[in-house]
Amino acid sequence: MASEDEANAAAAAAEAPEGKNWRRKGKHDKPKPWDEDPNIDHWKIEKFDPSWNEGGMLEVSSFSTLFPQYREKYLQESWPIVKGALKEHGISCELNLVEGSMTVSTTRKTRDPYIIVKARELIKLLSRSVPAPQAIKILDDEMNCDIIKIGGLVRNKERFVKRRERLLGPNLSTLKAIEILTGCYILVQGNTVAAMGSYTGRGLKQVRRIVEDCMKNIKHPVYHIKELLIKRELAKNPALATENWDRFLPKFKKKNVKQKKPQTKEKKPYTPFPPPQQPSKIDAQLETGEYFMSEKKKSAKKWQEKLEKQSGKAEENKRKREAAFVPPKENTAGPSESVKTANDNSEIADIAKSLKEKAKEFRKNKTQENVRVESYLASNEESRPKKKKSTNSK
């Protein structure tokens, strides 16, 4: 084998002209005339023309998928619509209610080779609770779908339900906002999230990132919505089309919330000796002498203890009930004593009033005796206001 390979290599080297290495990688990667043609839109998906494949399919391709039992009634009602939509593209479909499965397969009338893949996605969406009118749109060439499995991302069931509700939001407001910003149809059902949109507008890619970040607790969907809103506004400015937008986007830091530390028991000092053995039930009975009593006496003693405990509890309950009916303490002083105290208080008030009046008259007489003309004049002079010195002279 080795000699044959060496001979082939030598023959190729002899045939190749000198100065050129024809065995290099990518030797056929040459610029094509239509690569740089501005009139050609390379992202445009042309509608399939049946004349491209007049012979049809050589082999029969078929796909089948199971559906849950609660979808059986709806699929049975909407199956004529699905069958009519697939018949236009030459695809036959079958609904098996016994096995709970849907099957699509190609026929002799099938011309588009990729339509069977679209039909497979259609029955997948129908099994994931997507309405039939919405699921039929997947047969268009520009429409694609992505079924995101979220069941295995979170182990705890309560945490899984809580994070799944974040995608929906109050009154489905978060889900509607994501649908508007990404241009995709989103349905959260069970352990999957079904999304329908286009890959050209990066809508499906954004939906998958939002869903995975939410279920992995990396970023809340509301923060993704804020970023998408900012990007939409930046896209309107042609000057920023070639620049990096990271400086405009908000940066959300994850806050570590302090959790309550679990209460740990205090460690006792280590002792090499084991604790003393506790007395057993028989030892306690031997100490009290109960061990040597007969069964009859033991039962009588237990019964007596039970009665004493019940009587003590009954007395306590009776005391609590009677406490509500105890009358409040009344004023034990008689009417004569109360009248006497009132008279004493009135006499004391009269004496205090007369003393105040006598003191007032005494002060008045004393001031009239001490009044003099000189003091009156002096007081008038002092009471005159002094003229303020003018500051203008300075």
Automatic annotation (TrEMBL):
MF annotations from Gene Ontology: RNA binding
Signal peptide bounds: none
Subcellular localization, as worded in the UniProt entry: Nucleus, Nucleolus
Q: Where is the KRR1 small subunit processome component first KH domain?
A: 61-141
Q: Which domain of life is it from?
A: Eukaryota
The residue ranges flagged as biased composition, category Polar residues, are 333-345
* Known function: Required for 40S ribosome biogenesis. Involved in nucleolar processing of pre-18S ribosomal RNA and ribosome assembly.
| Stored CDD domains | KH-I_KRR1_rpt1, KH-I_KRR1_rpt2
Q: Where is this region: Disordered?
A: 1-40, 252-281, 295-345, 360-394
Q: Name one GO biological process term.
A: rRNA processing
**Protein's UniProt keywords contain Nucleus:** yes
Family, as annotated: Belongs to the KRR1 family.
Q: Under what name is this protein listed? A: KRR1 small subunit processome component
Q: Where is the composition biased (Basic residues)?
A: 252-262, 385-394
Kindly list the GO CC terms recorded for this protein: small-subunit processome
Q: Which UniProt keywords apply?
A: Nucleus, Ribonucleoprotein, Ribosome biogenesis, RNA-binding, rRNA processing
Q: How does it assemble?
A: Component of the ribosomal small subunit (SSU) processome.
Domain KRR1 small subunit processome component second KH, first and last residues per copy: 143-236
Q: Where is the composition biased (Basic and acidic residues)?
A: 31-40, 295-323, 360-372
Q: What is the source species?
A: Panicum virgatum
Q: Name one Pfam family in it.
A: KH_KRR1_2nd
